């Protein structure tokens, strides 16, 4: 089984995947990009790597041949055609996500961009439009990493009702985010 764990930065992908590494082989896409040099430069505004997606996808397809039970973790996972059996999008309430991203040292432009993406369901929509057979979402806001790992195990076991797409919504925070952006002159 090949499982993709994706989501906006700060939703808990790496932490949860580290817990699941006890049962699965885990590929951390961000590490692969850096170690293998699958990037063409650095986006000056965002301070993020400009990833060479074709190179990353080719590497991933090759790596997937060696393992039966595998997790591919990263905010780009859902954009790669890697034959996933399940795609899981981790979600987090924007007001909490803001604090997580700031504590990780993200600059304010990057914080704002990621909050907008989370509030507007960008990664979930991209995953749903990616043609995958099984896409689920988990709200990590008030769950520990161990609890999220347990949710993923439930999904793998077929207990999916609670995690169907559309169950997580940040509509109540969207107006606050827009107001904040307008005050900041964005």
Quick take:
By secondary structure, the protein is an alpha/beta fold. The chain has one domain: Rossmann fold, CATH 3.40.50.
The total count of helices amounts to 8
Domain module count: 1
Please identify which CATH superfamily we are dealing with: P-loop containing nucleotide triphosphate hydrolases
Number of strands: 7
The whole-number mean of residue pLDDT values reads 90
Strand content: 15-25%
Classify the helix fraction into a percent range.
Answer: 40-55%
What ranges have pLDDT less than 50 throughout 5 or more consecutive residues?
Answer: none
Topology:
Blueprint: E1 2-7, H1 13-20, E2 25-28, H2 29-36, E3 39-43, E4 48-51, H3 53-64, E5 70-73, E6 86-91, H4 94-103, H5 108-119, H6 122-129, E7 135-139, H7 145-156, H8 171-183
Parallel strand pairs: 1-5, 1-6, 2-5, 6-7
Antiparallel strand pairs: 3-4
Helix pairs in contact: 1-7, 4-5, 5-8
What does this structure look like?
The chain is α/β, with parallel strands linked by helices. It has one domain: P-loop containing nucleotide triphosphate hydrolases (Rossmann fold, 3-Layer(aba) Sandwich), CATH 3.40.50.300. 45% of the residues lie in helices and 18% in strands. The protein is built from 8 helices and 7 strands, in the order E-H-E-H-E-E-H-E-E-H-H-H-E-H-H. The strands form 2 sheets. Strands 2-5-1-6-7 form a 5-stranded parallel beta sheet, sandwiched between helices. Strands 3-4 form a two-stranded antiparallel sheet. Helix 4 packs antiparallel against helix 5 and helix 5 (108-119) packs antiparallel against helix 8 (171-183). Belongs to the adenylate kinase family. AK6 subfamily.
């Amino acid at each position: 089984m090949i499982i993709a764990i994706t989501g906006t930065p700060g939703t808990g992908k790496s932490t949860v995947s580290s817990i699941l590494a006890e049962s699965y082989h885990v590929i951390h896409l961000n590490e692969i990009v850096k170690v293998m040099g699958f990037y063409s430069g650095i986006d000056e505004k965002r301070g993020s790597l400009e990833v060479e997606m074709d190179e990353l996808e080719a590497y991933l397809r090759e790596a997937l041949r060696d393992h039966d039970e595998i997790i591919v973790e990263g905010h780009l996972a859902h954009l790669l055609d890697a034959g996933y059996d399940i795609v899981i999008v981790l979600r987090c309430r924007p007001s909490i996500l803001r604090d997580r991203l700031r504590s990780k040292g993200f600059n304010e432009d990057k914080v704002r961009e990621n909050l907008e993406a989370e509030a507007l369901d960008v990664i979930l929509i991209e995953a749903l439009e990616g043609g995958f057979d099984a896409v689920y979402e988990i709200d990590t806001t008030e769950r520990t990493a161990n609890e999220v790992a347990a949710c993923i195990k439930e999904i793998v076991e077929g207990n999916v009702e609670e995690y169907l797409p559309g169950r997580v919504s940040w509509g109540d925070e969207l107006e606050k985010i827009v107001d904040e952006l307008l005050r900041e002159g964005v």
